[in-house]
Amino acid sequence: MAVAEAQLYAKVSNKHRSRSTSALLEPLLAKGFPAHIAQKALVATGQKTVEDAAKWLHSHCNDPSLDDPIPQEYALYLCPTGHLHSRLQDFWKESKRQCGKNRAHEVFPHVTLCDFFTCEDQKVELLYDILKRVGDSFSQSFPPSISLTLHASPSYLGFFIDDRQANVLKEFAVAFSSEASALADCHVKPSLKQFHLTLAHRFYPHHQKTLEQLAKCINPGEPCQWVAALYSRDMRFVHYQRLRALFQYKPQNIDELMINAGDLIYVDPTQQCDVSEGWVIGISHRTGCRGFLPENYTEKAHESDTWVKHREYLFETASRSFTKTEKEPNVKLNGEGHNPSMSRSVTNVLSLQNTSLRRGVLVMRHGETVDQVFGKSWLQQCLTADGKYYRADLNFPSSLPRRKDGMKQFECDPPLSCCGIFQSRLIGEALLDQEVTVSSAYSSPALRCMQTAQHVLRGLKLNQRVKIRVEPGLFEWTKWEASRAIPNFMTVAELVEASYDIDTSYRGNFPLSSLVPSESYEDYVSRSSAVIKQIITACPSKGKGVILIVGHGSSLAPLTRALTGLPNRDSRDLAQMVRKIPSLGMCFCEELKEENKWQMVNPPVKTLTHGANAAFNWRNTIMED
């Protein structure tokens, strides 16, 4: 048991548990559930219905922590509703699309009244009563409208609340905390600092201007009703990352975790060091069970996705008389509910930016290679006694290209598997469907990267028009080369003979002779920064085509961060990050010409996810007794 968790047990183990006689609790007690476990289920589901609590208990039947006495943590937030909330949500989505995720995206729009505090499960109903009683006492003095003033700094963007109105909110928060501390035996601290509604936090400074432009599209005077809402979270997982399952996964081994699409998973970053590549160890929010799961079956979730909403108090204000009319219907933006006036405002901002967009850079990792599937000794599996290549498995390529140094060189410069070729072609076809126009293509000299670029261009139907430029400077960090030497790559002449569409007139910015074994991380980052800048300089700035760069897992961060002006990652962070980049993982940067900068945005196509397919021996599997 972790030290912090042991302290939590010690803190609550001596607390007295009283039996509530609430209408929700009695049916669960009648089913034979112990009182403390029934209370736990009710709290975990927001004390809404008996059915919800019973379903939670069924899902958590194998939860090893079901009998633990650790309480939930609670927070009181003031949240906007109505048109203002819709506009804030639009800002959330558009800011994430244009500038990437920042700290504010972890939680919905809110003003903090009381930060997180603990409350025993059997006393949570007292919090509900206190919220209603204090809300009623402030209903007449609550401001008819709340004045919001936009405030911006290099790391924060949000609305500050007028001091007079903020004082009323602070009095409400103090009243709630005082009663909760006295009646529910909770240590509640009201928020007494500057009341604010955060729009963006901990973002990169070069995104400030874009975020401010989007924020100015929000009219803070929009009709709005405010609610004081009580939320809870599991205090054991405060510092964990949260993932959402994209697909169902059925365990193949006893130590693996069963997940359904949509499940939320808690992941402790400190426990991932010794986990096999492509896997994480996590705890299911739905079942409480722990185990290994494939990381590419998940995506990052927001912190508040695992929170539970308990009760809210709606403050009646003058804005309440506003209702939506048929003249202002809801419309869709990017598949989400959206308000037309916000849509027009955001469109105006986007149109200003689109006029300055000139070029895009798509950086991708190569496709699946034979050594990824069959191991480093894959070549030995494919050679006859007289040294000739044969296809030992359908995922091996049907043939290997000729190279003057002999086939042994493929061990350090492996080709794509047949699935890798299919992946690359599929990505190219997806780019074609999205009408992406590639104007230039660059590749690392590694055969796997050359083949990926070739088949992506074939999927785009551009392989006859866009020739591949072999750039040695795009090769991966040489310290990671297992042979401790630079591989003998195929020459341009050998690639042309093997029917690869190579730009024979191109001369790389970094000659092969400049690559040194076991280079330092600083040298690798410097090389990556120099090569991306030279590629951008060499490509015409007048056109709107996309520059395709095919490299390695280690290529994505150094190339794109250098282009967008972001600081370099630590070498240890890079190693952890590369483990998470799948075959054909990609990043996309677009140029803002007027601002003389590049920004990273969503790639034009989704990545490709698929499961493993192990080798099958019918004799050993079907015939053995």
TrEMBL record:
Source taxon at top rank: Eukaryota
GO CC entries: cytoplasm; nucleus
GO BP: negative regulation of T cell receptor signaling pathway
Record flagged with keyword Nucleus: yes
Main location per the UniProt record: cytoplasm
CDD domains: HP_PGM_like, UBA_UBS3A_like
Protein keywords: Cytoplasm, Nucleus, SH3 domain
Subcellular location: Cytoplasm; Nucleus
Protein's UniProt keywords contain Nucleus: yes
Residue span(s) of domain UBA: 18-60
Domain SH3: 238-303
SMART domains in the cross-refs: SH3
InterPro entries associated with the record: His_Pase_superF_clade-1, His_PPase_superfam, Phosphatase_SH3-domain, SH3-like_dom_sf, SH3_domain, UBA, UBA-like_sf
One Pfam match: His_Phos_1
Region called Disordered, residue ranges: 325-344
Subunit-structure text: Homodimer or homooligomer. Interacts with CBL. Part of a complex containing CBL and activated EGFR. Interacts with ubiquitin and with mono-ubiquitinated proteins. Interacts with dynamin.
Protein name according to UniProt: Ubiquitin-associated and SH3 domain-containing protein A
Organism: Corvus brachyrhynchos (American crow)
Source taxonomy: Eukaryota, Metazoa, Chordata, Craniata, Vertebrata
